[in-house]
Amino acid sequence: PRDIDGDLTEILISEEQIHSRLAEMSRQIEADYAGKDLLLVGVLKGAVMVMADLARELHHPITMDWMAVSSYGSGTTSSGVVRILKDLDTDLTGRHVLIVEDIIDSGLTLSWLIANLNSRGPASVEICALLRKPDAARVEIDVKYAGFDIPNQFVVGYGLDYDEKYRNLRSVGVLAPHVYSSTSV
Ligand code: PRP
Ligand code: MN
Ligand code: MG
């Protein structure tokens, strides 16, 4: 185990579980987009790991692009107002777009993003998210490809961060309260 494993109270989803679920989701995506070009849009930075693994699991021609977005204002809860820090390089006109996310928490980021991308004239916009927290949802999001529903706990790893750390963990774990409640770190 690595040093940072002491910062987790439990492993919620193992590396093996993530990869077998991504394989199942990939088979579904391949079937649904048969004969169609597919543009994967990853939302930086959390989606980096799921994008890398999903894209390599897909036996389907894809292109990849990235957006970086940020909620206005401070505080721990998302305001739902989003600004674009890095926009797509790709013209979405007539394209089949699949947004790739690590987690849907309140749903506010994705809700805004779906509307934004839909305004650009795509053929379709769908969502693929590895994790979803049903108990934290503030808006209803129609997620076509959802990996795991998880409890409303502070999770990190596989792209998910706390204070930009833990993104490189291979599994998804629950962050120990002493990590984020401490004021002396
Ligand atoms: C996290 C996560 C999702 C979003 C979900 O990103 O990666 O993108 O929050 O939250 P919501 O459903 O409540 O809108 P974050 O803003 O922390 O940026 P990051 O991906 O760079 O970590
Ligand atoms: Mn994110
Ligand atoms: Mg984050």
UniProtKB/TrEMBL annotation:
Q: Domain Phosphoribosyltransferase spans what residues?
A: 16-162
**Compartments reported by the entry:** Cytoplasm
**What cofactor does this one take?**
Mg(2+)
Chief location: cytoplasm
- Alphabetized Gene3D superfamilies for the sequence: 3.40.50.2020
Catalytic activity as recorded in UniProt = IMP + diphosphate = hypoxanthine + 5-phospho-alpha-D-ribose 1-diphosphate; GMP + diphosphate = guanine + 5-phospho-alpha-D-ribose 1-diphosphate
One of the entry's Gene Ontology molecular-function terms is: guanine phosphoribosyltransferase activity
Q: EC?
A: 2.4.2.8
Please give a single GO biological process term from the UniProt record.
Answer: guanine salvage
- Please state what class of enzyme this protein is: transferase
- Pathway info: Purine metabolism; IMP biosynthesis via salvage pathway; IMP from hypoxanthine: step 1/1; Purine metabolism; GMP biosynthesis via salvage pathway; GMP from guanine: step 1/1
InterPro entries from the entry? HGPRT, Hxn_phspho_trans, PRTase-like, PRTase_dom
Q: Which positions, given as ranges, span the membrane? A: none
**Keyword terms:** Cytoplasm, Glycosyltransferase, Magnesium, Metal-binding, Nucleotide-binding, Purine salvage, Transferase
What does the entry list under GO cellular component? Answer: cytosol
Q: Which family does it belong to?
A: Belongs to the purine/pyrimidine phosphoribosyltransferase family.
According to UniProt, the name of this protein is Hypoxanthine phosphoribosyltransferase
Species annotation: Cryobacterium roopkundense
